[in-house]
Specification:
With 330 residues, the protein is an alpha/beta fold. It folds into 2 domains: 17-213, Rossmann fold (3-Layer(aba) Sandwich), CATH 3.40.50; 229-330, Helicase, Ruva Protein, domain 3 (Orthogonal Bundle). The protein has helices spanning 14-32, 39-49, 65-75, 91-95, 129-133, 136-141, 176-179, 193-201, 216-227, 233-246, 258-274, 282-293, 301-305, 310-320, 325-329; strands at residues 54-58, 76-77, 80-84, 96-101, 106-111, 118-122, 143-146, 149-152, 158-163, 182-186, 214-215, 252-254, 298-299. Helix 9 crosses helix 11, helix 10 (233-246) crosses helix 11 and helix 11 crosses helix 12 (282-293). The radius of gyration is 20 Å and the shape is globular.
């Protein structure tokens, strides 16, 4: 399973955590220049990215999914590429391939757009399953196999994908195996009236105009810091119990896997660091749980007919599984 770019030690100083929180707020404030009235949603997206996890933005058209993805990419002084997924996109258009050179009669490696720090996979559900599957290896292993050679992608490496859950004509639903590769799924929703007025008043501001506020080295340091946030054994057991509880729900055909438990751990650490804490708490786990677990649960047909949502089930699990007292008081 995917390990973030980090030393797995859990010894961290308050100075390092303060530096993380300052840089986190720097990123957040920069993105808010374009993303009006969406501070909480942007903050959670950054929690995912700084855990070096992949982010799925799922919402109706026109709510700022691509704008958020572009804003994150432009705020980080690294390489980034946008891939517009369409039905005729081929796997080699994503990963690259071997190109025959007539000059010397050999095959040369042609790197695809996936070789960058940040990949914007726009409307990822419009590509064929074969092309979607081209992302599986690189999302999990941070490497691409072309021919007989394995090629590493730059680190940190993050895929930010967008999809529209309403308009399904001409789309290919992401399989559970690929959904599980995304650390977090979130949506933006419509802005408030004041926020939408602010967007109209500043319509000329585009995400491409945002300057970078952090280098890739600084982002790598943040990823390392987040991975060293202390998590009490009792809190680890709480995370495992939450995941296990989803596997017992009769409304689900598929509960959260061990990868889901690891995702909760990583996001809780990243959230704690963003708030300037050297330790994670049960509240961190509860905050990220709906965004981390929602896309990993598969409803039964009967539950779908009854209009039950995975969000409701996660809330019921959070209510039924008691958090550790020590983790609350920490």
């Amino acid at each position: 399973m995917n390990e973030p770019l980090a030393n797995r030690s859990t010894t961290i100083s308050h100075v390092e955590v303060d530096r993380y929180a300052d840089r986190f707020n720097l990123l957040l404030n920069n993105i808010e220049i374009v993303m009006k009235g969406k501070q909480d949603q942007v903050a959670m997206a950054l929690v995912c990215v700084l855990a070096e996890g992949h982010l799925l933005l799922e919402d109706v058209p026109g709510t700022g999914k691509t704008v958020l993805a572009k804003s994150i990419a432009n705020s980080i002084d690294g390489t980034w590429n946008r891939i517009q997924f369409t039905p005729d996109l081929l796997p080699s258009d994503v990963t690259g391939g071997l190109v025959y050179s007539q000059t010397d009669g050999t095959f040369e490696l042609h790197r695809g757009p996936v070789f960058a720090n940040v990949i914007l996979a726009d409307e990822v559900n419009r590509a064929s399953p074969k092309t979607q599957a081209a992302l599986l290896e690189v999302m999990e292993e941070q490497q691409v196999t072309i021919g007989n050679n394995t090629n590493a992608v730059p680190r940190p490496f993050v895929v930010i994908a967008t999809q529209n859950p309403v308009e399904q004509a001409g789309t290919y639903r992401l399989p559970e195996a690929q959904l599980d590769r995304f650390l977090m799924r979130t949506s933006l929703g419509y802005p408030s009236e004041d926020a939408e007025v602010a967007v109209l008043a500043d319509e000329a501001m585009k995400p491409e105009q945002l300057g970078s506020v952090l280098t890739t080295a600084e982002v790598g340091e943040m990823v390392s810091t987040a991975s060293q946030i202390h998590v009490e054994p009792t809190l680890q057991r709480y995370i495992v119990r939450l995941a296990a509880a989803t596997r017992e729900l009769p409304e689900l055909r598929l509960g959260a896997s061990t990868r889901g438990s690891l995702a909760l751990l990583r996001c809780a650490r990243s959230l704690a660091a963003s708030q300037g804490r050297e330790y994670a708490m049960a509240d961190d786990v509860k905050t990220v749980a709906p965004l981390v677990l929602g896309h990993r649960l598969l409803l039964t047909p009967d539950a779908e007919l009854r209009g039950i949502s995975t969000s409701d089930l996660i809330e019921s699990v959070l209510d039924s599984v008691a958090p550790p007292t020590a983790a609350i008081a920490a």
